[in-house]
């Protein structure tokens, strides 16, 4: 006769219950999904879809303009000229990088939205024809 093993919480388990490990995979997949729109069919507004790239573009444009101002100050002012010459191009490049990343992000989101609409349309067609 086998002796039931004790689990970490102190309750006894039989060897058969060791094999039956419960899995929370389904619930963790739903909770850890990156886009909730896949699980819910509620339509989202344009701001909900595009708010991140718009913020990145806005911040990038602001940093780029700040870099332009600092770089132009190096031409006008003679005091601290080396500081302006070093920090101006840094802000220019950082702002330009964020601006371009945000502008590239917008067409990517549009393409994903079109693919998602096509996918939902094909799923509805498939369910219409095969669930009769």
UniProtKB/TrEMBL annotation:
UniProt name for this protein: PIRT protein
Gene Ontology molecular function terms on file: phosphatidylinositol bisphosphate binding; transmembrane transporter binding
Primary location group: membrane
Membrane-spanning ranges: 54-78, 90-109
Cell location: Membrane
Lineage, opening ranks: Eukaryota, Metazoa, Chordata, Craniata, Vertebrata
Taxonomic superkingdom: Eukaryota
Biased composition (Polar residues): 17-30
Topological category with respect to the lipid bilayer: Multi-pass membrane protein
